[in-house]
Structure formats: C-alpha cells, structure tokens
UniProtKB/TrEMBL annotation:
Organism: Paraconexibacter sp. AEG42_29
Signal peptide bounds: 1-37
The keyword Transmembrane appears for this protein: no
Protein name: Beta-lactamase-related domain-containing protein
Keywords: Signal
SUPFAM superfamilies named in the record: beta-lactamase/transpeptidase-like
InterPro entries (UniProt xref): Beta-lactam/transpept-like, Diverse_Enzym_Activities
Superkingdom to which the source organism belongs: Bacteria
C-alpha cells in the first residue's frame, strides 16, 4: 500500500461534533490564540484593572469594534463584563458609576446566601439542614413552619403549612426579608458567637463578612450592617462582579476556600422545584419553564437551564424527576446553568460558567433595549449579553460566525468552550448520596452560671438574658448566680448576655459579657 494516499471524508456535522468535543475538553482553547490562551485568574484584593483595547482580542476574546458599535444601547446602565478573571469591558455616562457604593436592594439576598454558606462551611453546629426552631425564637420565627429547616428559608418556602413534596402552595417572594429570610442573620450571629475561633475572632456575621469576604476579595466599596439580609447591602458594580466571580470559581479565591463547593452547588441549582424551578438558595437559576420570579423573565434564547444530575436530589431528597423545566426532560451534558442575583431597579450580577463570564449591572431599568424601548428590570443583563455575544463569536473555535448554531448548542448545555473546571473536578456530583439531617436531640442541660464581679466595681444592677429573655439573678453571701435552663431544646446554641451596671472610682461603669452554650453537649 506504499505510495497510496488515504483520504478520509467526514460530514460537516460530524466535523463540528468533533470540534465541540475538543473545545469542551479545552483542547482548542489552548491553541486558538485568543481567550483560552490568555489564562484565567482573579484580581485578589487589588482593584480591577481594565484590559487595554488593543489586548481585548488576545485576553478576552472580544472584538472591540463590535463592542463600541453596541455601546449606545447601554449608556444609561453602568455595567462591567468580566472574562477569564479580567475586567474586559465597562460603561457608564457618569464618572465612578461602576466603583461608587450604592444600595443594591434585593441583590443583598444572594449575598446573604453566600455569607450563610461561608458560616456553615466553618461551623460545626449550623448547616442548611439545621432546624430553624433550634436556632431562632418563636417570636422571631413568626409564621415560619415549626418543622422548617434552614434550606426551606433559603428557598423561601418555610412559611408553607405543608413542606412535603407537591404540597407547597404557590411560591411567593419575601420582598423585604421580614417574613422569613432575616432569621438567617440571627442564626449566623449565634453560630459565630458559639465558636469565635472558627471565625477569626469575629463577634457577629457583619464583622465576619468584613474580615472573611470584603477584605480578602478587595470589596472596598461594600458594607453590610448585619441583622437582616432582605436588602441592606451597599456595594458597587465592581464589587458585585467579585461576588459573581467567587461563584464562578466554585468558592475559591486566590486558591483559598471561601465557601464549600457542595454548598455553592446547592445554592445555584433549583431547591424546591415543585413550587419554583428557577430558584436555588436566594439565587435565581435560569429555567425553561415553571419558574416564578417577582419581576424577571428567564432567558429562553441563548442561556442554559439549571438541572440537578439525579433524583431525588439533596439535601432533602424530595424531587422525583428532572427539574428546571428542561425541554423533553433530556439529560444535560454539561452542568453550566446561568445563575444571577437581582435587586429592584436592575442591580445584578450574573454568572455564565461555560463561557467564563460574569456580568454586573446597575440601574438596569434605565437601560435602552435592543429595539430602542425601555426594558424590564431583569433584561438589563440580557442587553449586555446580547452585546458581547456577537463580539465573542468571531473567535469561537467551533461556531465562528454562526450565532444560531452557538445558541442552540449552548442553550442545550452541550457546549461550554471556556468552562474552567466542572463541578467537583468532573467527578459525579454527590446529589445521589443522602445528606443526613443531624440527629435531633432534646437537651437535658441546666446550668448554674456564676457571675463574677469586675475588679474595683460596685455592682448596682445585673441583667442576664438567655436568647433575649430575662433570667432571674440570685445573690447569696455576695455571690451572684443565674440558672440557665436549656432543657427540652434541640441541637443549637444558646446565647447568654450579661450586663452589669455600677460605679468604679466614683464613675458610672457598664460591663457586658456574652457566653455561648451548646444545648446538646456531649453526654447531655
């Protein structure tokens, strides 16, 4: 057969299928000379530094001329586009509009879910399957079901009378957080007070957020006062992009674990799809049908949908079949759902894992839509997405110049040319392995707490409170004691606050102390 030439012919469809396989595996990205070759990174705590225009193709895989042509559609809504961990494009008519601090309203909720994940990642006591009643008083629980777990609060279903699968009522939004989700802040404060060494000495969730999230991520424009998570975060467009980047990087920042990957996976997948296919843990998940959002609409055109890999799925193992409203109940090839936060007026950060992109927008209600019309709140990011997609496609290793083909494959979760890493490093997601709720306990602890007198202080009044309720203080032979009765409580932490008022050296003095007790300590 020497000297003979063997010619192998393959169909255009087969060739494209091969290219899709190679691109998804990352082979073509390494040789394309654009996005993949630039590498991926995050900025650490340093400010974002915008990629120069003449480097946009090489470092971001975006055509600057096409971006400029679309820019007039985005003049009224400050935005940023992060790709491969770099600030590739931003725009605004107002100076500093992407860097100044401002209220982001309900985008606070997704931040709150992330912070809760950071707390449960470190806590040995609190988890998303902890019982709410074990951590929050009846007065603070209000209408929350006595049997509800934290996961029910995170999915905004905890006030349902029946929490079983298929029995929940129509999903409703906890707009200001006072109906249910603010109890997460109370639980975080208690968990931190119980084990301060696990939280860098932080005294509460607000201080922990500053030390463990804002500072290491360089979120210098961000402030959260604590106490609630319905809408009290102030931040910037640049800082919102960092939160999105943390999700995209599966909870890692500069190689350090900030949030557990398992928690983030649950957060960014449908939590209770029998009532809402498009909501995870205080996070919106793109869905084909069955989603219920207060003001938003799903992206049906060119974004993948969220779906768990097996059923029933964790953490409560309620669902019986494919979720996310995926057409024809097909099994997804890639787990790349588009997820986002959303605050009143168009405050958002949006994650496109398969393309290594994060978009953050401000005042999206003011954005000019593709047809020159005022667009609804959720669509502000769609406008940015519609702008960068054509600017990205000329450099796509498979679908260059074929937007329809790209959207069809990407929407079907079959194509992700810039996926950094699959969830769990490509291993089977742990959805099929039950996460057992921690065994319930009924505490038998009844403690007598001795209250020491501060040196040199004449004590005139003592106030002791157990989880906010006053406890009687006894004085006998100069010794002050209080009985801390934890009997009958479930597995949680009890917080005792002691305030002593008096005088020292003729001047009024107030001394405060806080103690935390596990209700179900070993042997109790």
């Amino acid at each position: 057969m020497m000297g003979m030439r063997v010619v192998v012919r393959c169909s255009r469809l087969a060739l494209r299928s091969l290219l899709v396989l190679l691109a998804t595996a990352g082979v073509l990205a390494m040789s394309s000379g654009v996005a993949g070759a630039a590498g991926t990174e995050d900025p650490g705590s340093a400010p974002w530094k915008q990629v120069p225009r003449d480097r946009l193709i090489a470092e971001c895989g975006l055509d600057p001329a096409m971006l400029n042509a679309y820019a007039p559609n985005l003049l009224l809504s400050p935005f940023v586009v992060i790709r491969h961990g770099k600030l590739c494009w931003e725009g605004s008519l107002q100076p500093n509009a992407t860097t100044e601090s401002y209220p982001v309203f309900s985008a606070t909720k997704t931040f709150g879910a992330m912070l809760f994940g950071m707390v449960v990642t470190r806590s040995s006591l609190l988890s998303d399957t902890s019982k709410v009643a074990d951590w929050v008083s009846a007065a603070d629980r209000k209408t929350i079901n006595p049997d509800a777990l934290m996961v029910h609060v995170l999915g905004m279903v905890s006030t349902n009378a029946d929490l079983s699968f298929g029995k929940k009522r129509k999903w409703s939004y906890d707009t200001d957080g006072t109906r249910e989700i603010d109890v997460l802040a109370l639980a975080m404060d208690k968990a931190i007070a119980a084990e301060p060494d696990r939280f860098g000495g932080a005294k509460d969730a607000a201080e922990f957020a500053q030390k463990a999230l804002f500072d290491p991520l360089g979120m210098s424009a961000s402030h959260w006062p604590g106490g609630a998570i319905g809408g009290n975060l102030t931040t910037s467009v640049h800082d919102m992009a960092r939160l999105g980047q943390l999700i995209l990087q599966r909870g890692l920042w500069q190689g350090e674990r900030v949030i557990s990957e398992e928690y983030l996976y649950r957060m960014t997948h449908p939590s209770f799809e029998d009532t809402n296919t498009g909501y995870g843990y205080l996070t919106y998940v793109n869905a084909a049908s069955g989603w219920a959002w207060p003001t938003s609409s799903a992206d049906q055109n060119c974004s993948p949908f969220g779906e768990w890999p097996s059923y029933p799925h964790r953490p409560l193992f309620q669902s019986t079949g494919p979720n996310g409203g995926v057409p024809d109940n097909r099994a997804q090839k890639l787990d790349i759902a588009h997820v986002f936060s959303s605050g009143t007026g168009g405050q958002k950060w949006i994650v496109y894992r398969g393309l290594d992109i994060v978009i953050a927008t401000r005042n999206g209600l003011l954005s000019v839509g593709d047809g020159g019309k005022l667009i609804e709140g959720f669509s502000s990011h769609k406008t940015v997405w519609n702008a960068i997609r054509p600017a990205m496609l000329p450099f796509d290793p498979v679908y260059a110049g074929d937007e329809a083909g790209f959207c069809k494959a990407y929407r079907a979760s079959e194509y992700a040319p810039d996926l950094r890493e699959p969830w769990f490093d490509g291993k089977a997601a742990p959805a099929a392995s039950p996460t057992k709720v921690k065994p319930a306990c009924k505490s038998r602890r009844r403690l007598t707490l001795a209250i020491a007198r501060p040196k040199g202080m004449t004590v005139q009044r003592v106030d002791v409170r157990l989880d906010g309720r006053r406890v009687r203080v006894k004085t006998s032979r100069g010794r002050m004691t209080a009985v801390i009765d934890l009997r009958g409580r479930g597995a949680t932490v009890a917080i005792v606050r002691i305030v002593l008022r008096g005088v020292r050296a003729g001047k009024p003095v107030v001394v405060s102390r806080t103690r935390a007790f596990r209700t179900c300590a070993k042997g109790s």
